């Protein structure tokens, strides 16, 4: 079988850590691309040096040259800026739009058959940027957020109940922000919904901690945001696609009427396989859950409208 290739755009905290996690799975050759070329080269070499100790034997190459994404099966976009003092949300949106658009154009040119996983924030809006700039099929441009948010919820549930992490599954819908929609009825321990195992007050606490999971870490770090779990989530998506695992997990996918939402990227359960998003699952939602999802979608829509204004101005 020909070897698979994965490129990671942006070798910062999330990008480099994702590269490392994917290397340990020994499923693909790896390329990291970053404007900070020396740093990328250094990290690439450092990962290679760790190979004999960590038991992976795959080529890993750090570079500043976008042409090196050539023929990638999957490309993960983590490049972006964090908000700096004096920058408002719109400034960040513009800066990251430029970065993601540039990356996406290079991907379309050099790796026209790749599946793209977007990580850069604001996540759901950046998925729209990558989709437009690549011109790829909807199924091949996917956002990473729900797997991360669900992993956090899984951990909080296991911790609260004192049970094995591996027994816990969770579902989180919506945009990647404070208005995400964790679903207790679809969060289970060995198939038993947590609504059968915990009282409402305990559940509410876990849901709120999930919504604020990223902010809790930013609060401690002060500069920068979480990256080990985000990188692990991206690596899981890469593995599901490369190995055609038909993995059911929440990801940002482009909706065309599902959940009553049209022409918008938002987190929903999908089947991930070698064709990217192979299916979008429509869960039965209560009226309250549906209303929460609509609120979350409205927040994402606002970001997309800002993006459209910016595109018209530019
Ligand atoms: O759930 C999620 N989707 C997220 C999203 C979880 C965690 C982080 N999330 C977002 O990912 C975060 O808000 C950022 O927008 C990205 C990357 O976060 P990270 O923590 O990795 O940021 P870093 O460490 O600052 O890394 C960004 C890298 C850095 O090395 C820059 O030099 C590089 O991006 N960069 C570029 N690379 C290539 N090309 C261009 N144009 C470029 N510009 C910056």
Q: Can you tag this structure with a few keywords?
A:
Rossmann fold; 2 domains; six-stranded parallel sheet; 314 residues; alpha/beta; 9 helices; three-stranded antiparallel sheet; binds 1,4,5,6-tetrahydronicotinamide adenine dinucleotide; 14 strands; L-2-Hydroxyisocaproate Dehydrogenase, Chain A, domain 2
Question: Can you give a write-up of this model?
Answer:
By secondary structure, the chain is α/β, with parallel strands linked by helices. It folds into two domains: 5-143, 3-Layer(aba) Sandwich (Rossmann fold), CATH 3.40.50; 146-309, Lactate dehydrogenase/glycoside hydrolase, family 4, C-terminal (L-2-Hydroxyisocaproate Dehydrogenase, Chain A, domain 2), CATH 3.90.110. Helices cover 46% and strands 20% of the residues. It is built from nine helices and 14 strands. It has helices at residues 13-25, 37-54, 89-110, 123-134, 146-161, 200-211, 213-221, 228-242, 287-313, and strands spanning 5-9, 29-33, 60-63, 74-77, 115-118, 141-143, 168-169, 172-173, 181-182, 188-189, 192-193, 247-256, 262-273, 276-280. The strands form four sheets. Strands 3-2-1-4-5-6 form a six-stranded parallel beta sheet, sandwiched between helices. A three-stranded antiparallel beta sheet has the order 7-10-11, covered by helices on one side. A hairpin with a 7-residue loop joins β8 and β9. α1 (13-25) packs parallel to α2 (37-54) and α4 crosses α9. Residues 9-15, 33-36, 78-80, 82, 99, 102-103, 119-121, 123, 144-145, 148, 176, 224-227, 230 line the site of 1,4,5,6-tetrahydronicotinamide adenine dinucleotide. 1,4,5,6-tetrahydronicotinamide adenine dinucleotide (TXD) binds at residues 9-15, 33-36, 78-80, 82, 99, 102-103, 119-121, 123, 144-145, 148, 176, 224-227, 230.
